[in-house]
Amino acid sequence: MKNIVYVVLAMIVLSSCQKQAKIGYVNNGTVINDFQEKIELEAKFQKKSDAFQKRRDSLVNAYQLELQEAQQKAKRMSQVNLQKLSQEIQQKEQLLSQKIQSEQQEIQQTFQAELDSVIVKVKDFVKDYGKKNGYTYILGTTDAASTVMYGTGENDLTQIILDALNGADKEEVKEESEKKE
Question: From start to end of the chain, where are the E strands?
């Protein structure tokens, strides 16, 4: 009986001596969406999107004018020439549609690739932050997929990470500009 008490006591002592895990969490959506580099990336691609919309509108307007002219000519054409004109118009419409769709996809793919690199940068930063500050775990959560159901404010690293990330971003820009000078 004494042995059992000693074994239990030893287990309690050993378990209390183990290092306590340091755990924090971040709201992924907030960190990503409020990261200055992502905000700048979105602004850059909004300008590209606006320029694309203007080009697209210009091309569509030019096509519509050409279509109106063709409709005027069609009134005076024979059936054979009317079919040729109709085929030409259809081909131009298909080419215009393909050109618009291709450019739109290119913009979206480029944006997604750059956004993915921003996300990787944030993940790497959080990983390095955790290592430097002795965290065993840094969990991520979002409103859509809440992996942290509850956490105290002292364990919420969202603003700390975001401030450090945006501060680190400014430092990198500052260092790069100093190197160029």
Answer: 23-27, 137-141
